[in-house]
């Protein structure tokens, strides 16, 4: 049995209950990863279109699911290309979209990918093609790096850490995860149980891969693609992801007003989604067998027959996104990558 086949996706029963895959239905799996959700959808009889921008995940998927035939379509692309890629395949609507956001277990466990400071490897962090975290350190300004650490890592000592990182990088280029983690440890110390590099690595990974922008764009695309009664299911692993999904669902279901009391309430059109169930988290038994499930949250929504919302700048601001997500700096990085 391969590593992928041994992999058990988090909150599988909850995702299946929310997505309700069945014979003849078309389900989109974002992101394919090790194929755990896809495997369950296929066994339920659904036709699956699975996205992953990681070529190694797609290659492994072709081997693992070779017998699936035309019941499975694997697409190597960022999942914010969902709408365009489905259109190219002649698909105008789907029954369910399931998003498993963030870095995969396989990527974390492979030191050569540079996602984790637990084992030394190249300072990479790319989920697919594009520029690496090492490339970012070569060109980023101190103020921009501080913003990345603060907004994407929620690092309170962002400016101090950014200054120290770039100073060290100028003296001798930081090319490995171990070298970068050591700078974080020297600068921030070990005052808590959380490793001082945790927020730093999260922030760089999110920026390098434009993760929050990807999630925002795919949520809006799913709203346009889902048929009435279709299901949108999101699995998130940290507060920035979950906050975005929560506020998107709240706005699209008509439950969201202004995030701040200083902003006017957002009113208007008929809700494009309903929220039939509350968010769900892993139970003690699942966390005991799979510690990475501890931070996972599943949120789901059901598409109504209403027109998709018009996502104006005002509505987007109401989602409380970190300013970097919609900034020219993040967009130019993503475009050039």
Structure description:
There is one protein chain. The protein is α/β, with parallel strands linked by helices and 337 residues long. It contains 16 helices and eight strands. Strands 1, 2, 3, 4, 5, 6, 7 and 8 form an eight-stranded mixed sheet that branches. Strand 2 (47-52), helix 4 (55-64) and strand 3 form a beta-alpha-beta unit.
Short description:
The chain has 337 residues and is of the alpha/beta class. The protein has helices spanning 3-6, 12-19, 36-43, 55-64, 82-88, 105-109, 133-139, 142-153, 158-171, 177-188, 198-209, 211-225, 239-252, 284-289, 313-318, 328-336; strands at residues 26-30, 47-52, 72-76, 94-100, 226-236, 273-274, 280-281, 297-303. The protein folds into two domains: 3-106 and 211-329, Vaccinia Virus protein VP39 (Rossmann fold, 3-Layer(aba) Sandwich), CATH 3.40.50.150; 118-209, DNA polymerase, domain 1, CATH 1.10.150.
């Amino acid at each position: 049995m391969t590593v992928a086949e041994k992999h058990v996706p988090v909150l599988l029963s909850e995702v299946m209950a929310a997505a309700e895959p069945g014979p003849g239905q078309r389900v989109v799996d974002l992101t394919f990863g090790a194929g755990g959700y896809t495997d369950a959808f296929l066994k339920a009889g659904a036709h699956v279109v699975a996205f992953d921008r990681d070529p190694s995940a797609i290659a492994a998927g072709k081997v693992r699911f070779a017998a699936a035939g035309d019941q499975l379509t694997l697409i190597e692309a960022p999942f914010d290309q969902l709408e365009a890629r489905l259109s190219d395949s002649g698909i105008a609507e789907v029954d369910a979209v399931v998003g498993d956001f963030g870095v995969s277990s396989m990527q974390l466990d492979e030191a050569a990918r540079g996602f984790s400071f637990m084992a030394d490897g190249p300072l990479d962090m790319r989920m697919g093609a594009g520029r690496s975290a090492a490339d970012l350190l070569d060109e980023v300004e101190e103020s921009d790096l501080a913003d990345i650490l603060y907004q994407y890592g929620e690092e309170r000592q962002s400016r101090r850490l950014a200054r120290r990182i770039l100073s060290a990088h100028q003296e001798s280029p930081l090319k490995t995860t171990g070298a970068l983690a050591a700078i974080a440890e020297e600068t921030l110390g070990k005052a808590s149980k959380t490793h001082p590099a945790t927020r730093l690595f999260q922030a760089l990974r999110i920026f390098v891969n434009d993760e929050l922008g990807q999630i925002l764009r795919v949520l809006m695309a799913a709203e346009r693609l889902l048929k009435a009664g279709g299901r949108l299911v999101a699995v998130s692993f940290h507060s920035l992801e979950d906050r975005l999904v929560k506020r998107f669902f709240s706005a699209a279901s008509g439950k969201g007003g202004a995030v701040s009391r200083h902003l006017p309430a957002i009113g208007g059109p008929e809700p494009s989604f309903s929220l039939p169930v509350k968010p769900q988290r892993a139970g003690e038994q699942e966390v005991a067998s799979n510690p990475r499930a501890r931070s996972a949250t599943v949120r789901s929504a059901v598409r109504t027959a209403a027109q998709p919302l018009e996502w104006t700048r005002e509505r987007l601001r109401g989602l409380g996104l970190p300013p970097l997500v919609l900034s020219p700096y993040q967009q130019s990085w993503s475009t050039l990558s």
